[in-house]
Specification:
851 residues, alpha+beta, 5-stranded antiparallel β-sheet, 27 strands, 39% helix
Length: 851
């Protein structure tokens, strides 16, 4: 910006442009008029021109006299004009900061005394320069000055702040006193409605060194306070309403072994530094707000190394209207190292620690049932399930359901009168009573002025009740399974006889005989009944399994084609395979039966169509612990989840879905053994199955099969399947031991018709007598497993005493595993499950004799 002209005074105010502007055109017209008048008068005669000359002189005389009077009263000014707005000038001259006004061409129009003083100019205007010139020559602030000048040229408001110190010497070598400057620039019109080209540039130059020194002093004092708080012999802690730690000082951090430079400290929760459930007690504000006083707590904090730190905490509630709601606490170390003396106060602290560390909820109440002191477990038990309670005002009975509250109130009243041995009170709390608990009420010996009338001990029995229900359900299923297994065994004997005698009759009738079709119907229905019996055995976990190492992803991939046809076009199938799925050991055909049964049930639950999802995943031991299934042994499992989007299962039906012969389908559309079979197969495999359903949303069955770690025994050479024999006749002596006469009669006739010599016995004891009568000349023993007096495995042990190479076939309606554990590990035998046909019996006998 250029320096001011000598003709412009530094203190001259900016005048109204209208007072300075004249009319050049009017002046020219006036000159032309006077010239024309002179020419006209010169051409006229003296006598004619004289009146006109006198008139002109008279007019000029009048104007002169008027001007003298106007000058006297101040209407006209002669010489230099005075400022029109003395008030504005006085105000700007006395501003505490420098003010400079420049014309659009950069010419300085005005500068006040403060500006002259700040740039070091004289009072007479000597050395008056613009802002650019005044602060030029300082390389360190060149960029700030450039931005200000550019903003002035562009007509934009701008502000810069910078520091000039002794190192910022002027170009002439003079020192610059250390000062902070704040310079701003903007533009304003000289008068309302002026054009942009006539805008004035307004500069403000302020010395803000005092503000900066005040800020520095305040920061230094704040740093001293922070240093004091950090190095104080007590801990300081601030916790938000949501339990997050907002601040802890260095002393407390040192006690707890926390590194304050750790980036994760910003997400530190109170539960990470407070032992047990005391975090909920620290974050509570209801009882404090009710009384508005400092509360004292003796609890244990948790160090990073897992050890506990006994402390006493003094905390105050948030101030009324505090939007942040921070709880500020003073923490005192009460460890043995900090307080070695064994005084009564140490005993008080020890008791308080026991009180807050107790695993059960404890609270004191007065005679009316109002809550007094509570421990940490009490606060955590009722956290997020009831409205915040306030000490001294909230009734204990208001925290639980209506029935439990009335019973609790009666118990508290009885305890207040000194009655002991009160019965516990069961109650429900939480959302819609989803959680259950039990209160024990004990009276307190009261002294004068004591408000406490009783102590209430609370236990959350939700998990215990769930476990009891699961155990009861498991016991019920086990009892039903035993009953079903016994029934299935007896049915197998009956069906074996029916099927066997049917085949004997069919062997004596041609297809053209009238009775042939009737006999065939008997056999077919018997085989159908045998299928139902196998499902009962599956439910009772007494069927014979052929476990093998399986990869569920491969099994489900092969099965998905069949499932797609089974579900139909209205239902979409989505199979989601888990990554790096572990292996399991299960019967392939039985597991396929599990998936098919669940898919059929899902299809029936989605008559209008829907989606069936089968998902697999690995479940680690830690994850299995967090599932919340008490009957499930923690370990590594492979999850197979079958989820549909059907109608869902009502809660009353959910309790019975695994019961045999229970079905919600119409008569003739189901046997009620589908889910029973699924339950039995999963249980016999060593797994667990848990259903979950929501009406209108669908049902999910989660199957957990134990992880199988491959061993050398899993790698078996492929065995060639024996070819089906056409010639089933043979020779030899067969001892048939069966306590069911119908089965024994059919089997004896069947073997005798194939050329064998058959010896019969009804019990194991009778079989030993028959062996002794025939001198042990028996080639094969076909024996039932479950018999009176002596069962099959015991009979085999007795026979081995005299004949180590005797061959034996066990027949039974139970699974092979049910009796195999009663035999020696290396014992060789053949197993033929009931019911069996004549052909199956003949094949087993011939293969065993020839092997």
């Amino acid at each position: 910006m250029s320096q001011a002209d000598d003709s412009v005074r530094y203190a001259e105010p900016v005048e109204d442009a209208r007072s300075r502007e004249g009319s050049i055109g009017l002046l020219v017209l006036l000159a032309i008029g006077l010239a024309m008048a002179a020419v006209v008068l010169a051409l006229m005669s003296r006598e004619a021109a004289e009146p006109f000359v006198l008139a002109i002189l008279a007019g000029l005389s009048v104007i002169g006299v008027f001007s003298l009077f106007a000058g006297a009263v101040g209407i006209l000014h002669f010489g230099e004009r005075a400022a029109r707005n003395d008030l504005t000038k006085a105000y700007v001259d006395n501003l505490p900061y420098g003010a400079l006004v420049a014309a659009p061409d950069g010419k300085i129009l005005y500068a006040n005394e403060a500006y002259l003083r700040l740039i070091g100019a004289g009072h007479d205007g000597a050395g008056l320069v613009g802002v650019e010139t005044a602060f030029s020559g300082h390389a360190r602030i060149a960029e700030q000055i450039f931005r200000l000048a550019r903003a002035a040229r562009q007509g934009k408001p701008w502000t810069e702040e910078f520091f000039l110190g002794p190192e910022d010497r002027k170009a002439d070598g003079r020192d610059v006193p250390p000062r902070w400057f704040r310079i701003s620039v903007r533009q304003a019109p000289a008068r309302p409605g002026a054009e942009r080209r006539s805008l004035l540039t307004l500069w403000q130059v302020m010395d803000v060194s005092g503000e900066r020194r005040a800020e520095a002093d305040a920061f230094e004092k704040l740093q001293q306070v922070i240093d004091y708080v950090d190095t104080a012999p007590a801990g300081f802690l601030s916790i938000a309403r949501n339990g997050r730690v907002e601040y802890l000082n260095a002393t407390l951090a040192r006690w707890l072994g926390i590194d304050l430079s750790d980036s994760a400290l910003g997400n530190l929760d109170a539960s990470a530094i407070v032992q047990g459930g005391a975090a909920a007690l620290l974050a509570r504000t209801g009882e404090d707000l009710a009384q508005g006083e400092t509360r004292r707590l003796d609890i244990d904090l948790l160090r990073r190394d897992g050890t506990s730190l006994p402390v006493r905490i003094l905390r105050r509630p948030p101030a009324p209207g505090d939007g942040h709601g921070l709880l500020h606490m003073l923490v005192f170390n009460r460890s043995v190292e900090a307080e070695p003396e064994g005084t009564a106060r140490a005993a008080e602290v020890r008791f308080s620690r026991f009180f807050h560390s107790a695993p059960i909820a404890i609270a004191t109440v007065d005679a009316e049932g109002r809550i007094g002191d509570t421990n940490a477990r009490f606060a955590s038990m009722f956290e997020n399930v009831t409205e915040p309670y306030a000490a001294g005002t909230t009734l204990m009975s208001s925290l639980v359901d209506l029935d439990g509250g009335e019973a609790l109130q009666r118990a508290i009243k009885a305890a207040g009168s000194g009655q002991a041995g009160l019965e516990p009170v069961d109650f429900a709390f939480g959302v819609e009573g989803a959680r259950r608990g039990r209160f024990y009420v004990s009276p307190i010996e009261r002294g004068e002025g004591d408000k406490e009338a009783a102590i209430v001990y609370g236990i959350d029995t939700t998990e215990q009740r769930a476990l009891e229900m699961q155990i009861a359900q498991s016991q019920k299923m086990q009892a039903i399974g035993q009953l079903a297994g016994g029934i299935a065994h007896d049915f197998n004997n009956v069906l074996t006889a029916i099927i066997g005698f049917s085949e004997l009759l069919l062997a004596n009738h041609r297809e053209t005989d009238p009775a042939f079709q009737d006999i065939m119907n008997i056999k077919q229905n018997a085989n159908r009944a045998a299928g139902l019996v196998r499902q009962l055995l599956a439910f009772s976990r007494q069927q014979t399994l052929r476990p093998q190492v399986l990869q569920l992803s491969e099994v489900l991939t092969e099965l998905s084609i069949l499932l797609g046809r089974l579900l139909g076009e209205k239902i979409s199938l989505n199979v989601q395979h888990g990554r790096d799925l572990w292996q399991v050991k299960a019967d392939l055909h039985q597991f396929e039966q599990v998936i098919i049964n669940l898919a059929v049930n899902a299809r029936d639950a989605m008559p209008e169509g829907g989606k069936l999802t089968i998902r697999t995943a690995n479940v680690t031991e830690s994850e299995s612990r967090n599932l919340g299934h008490a009957v499930m042994v923690p370990g590594e499992y492979v999850l197979c989840e079958v989820t549909d989007t059907g109608t869902g299962i009502p809660p009353d039906v959910m309790e019975k879905i695994f019961d045999p012969f229970f079905s919600t389908k119409e008569v003739g559309k189901g046997t009620g053994l589908g889910l029973s079979t699924v339950y039995g197969i999963v249980k016999q495999t060593g797994g667990f199955i848990f259903p979950e359903s929501e009406l209108g949303r669908g049902t999910a069955f989660r199957i957990y099969l134990p992880r199988h770690i491959p061993v050398a025994e899993d790698i078996e050479p492929e065995r060639k399947k024996p070819e089906k024999r056409k010639d089933l006749t043979g020779t030899g002596t067969v001892l048939l031991v069966e306590d069911e006469e119908a089965v024994r009669t059919f089997a004896a006739r069947a073997l005798a018709s194939r050329g064998y010599k058959v010896l019969e016995a009804g019990t194991g004891t009778e079989a030993l007598e028959v062996m002794e009568d025939h001198g042990g000349e028996v080639d094969l023993v076909v024996s039932d497993v479950v018999m009176p007096e002596m069962d099959g495995p015991t009979l085999l042990k007795e026979l081995r005493k005299t004949n180590r190479d005797l061959k034996i076939i066990f027949i039974s309606g139970y699974a092979e595993d049910a009796f195999k554990k009663n035999l020696e590990a290396k014992e060789q035998f053949v197993f033929l499950p009931k019911p069996f046909s004549l052909k199956q019996l003949a094949e087993a006998v011939k293969e065993t004799l020839e092997s």
